């Protein structure tokens, strides 16, 4: 069973910002980030909603269909917390949807998990909100990130070290 909340849409969390994405918040996280964005979801017991793997897949695909999107953001908590890892690995490997994962782990730690099939990956603890970074202008994209966090594509290319980048 997976503890998660599958929200309808987000317009700010998928890196390309050209479409809405479905967002799934997973319960469970042990990173204790200084500026935690979702403190409530650190506790695995904080969510009442539990899904079997197949039920959560059904909900994700149904919400993608009804919102005309093929993009999914996995957030939390940490989608790669040990309680959620098996589902996320299976989902990323089997789905044809474009998946973005937010995790508090560093990239080298994610690499040890053998995770495949995601489109984007944001790594590292959330320490300092960079929303006021003076790099931001009309040519840049921004995802909620702290200055230490890194955004990677599926080929292992580092797109940004602070959440602000040009595609
Ligand atoms: S990884 Fe996310 S949920 Fe976990 S402590 Fe950091 S900001 Fe909070």
How would you characterize this protein structure?
This protein has an eight-stranded mixed β-sheet, covered by helices on one side. Strands 7-10 form a two-stranded antiparallel sheet. With about 170 residues, it is of the alpha/beta class. Strand 8 and strand 9 form a beta hairpin. It has three helices and ten strands; from the N terminus they run E-E-E-H-E-H-E-H-E-E-E-E-E. The chain has one domain (about 1-165). Helix content is about 15%, strand content about 25%. Bound molecules: iron/sulfur cluster (SF4). Iron/sulfur cluster (SF4) binds near residues 33, 37, 38, 42 and 76.
Based on the model shown, name its key terms.
single chain; about 170 residues; alpha/beta; eight-stranded mixed sheet; two-stranded antiparallel ribbon; globular; binds iron/sulfur cluster
């Amino acid at each position: 069973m997976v503890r998660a909340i599958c929200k309808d849409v987000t317009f700010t969390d998928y890196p390309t910002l050209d479409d809405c994405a479905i967002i799934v918040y997973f319960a469970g996280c042990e990173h204790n980030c200084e500026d935690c964005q979702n403190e409530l979801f650190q506790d695995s017991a904080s969510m009442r909603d539990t899904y079997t793997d197949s039920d959560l897949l059904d909900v994700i695909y149904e919400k993608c269909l009804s919102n005309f999107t093929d993009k999914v953001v996995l957030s939390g908590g940490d989608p790669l917390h040990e309680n959620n890892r098996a589902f996320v690995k299976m989902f990323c490997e089997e789905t044809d949807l474009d998946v973005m994962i937010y995790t508090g782990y560093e990239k080298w730690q994610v690499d040890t998990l053998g995770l495949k099939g995601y489109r984007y990956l944001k790594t590292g603890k959330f320490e300092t909100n960079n929303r006021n970074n003076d790099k931001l202008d009309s040519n840049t994209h921004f995802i909620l990130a702290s200055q230490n966090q890194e955004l990677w594509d599926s080929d292992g290319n580092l797109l940004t070290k602070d959440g602000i980048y040009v595609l």
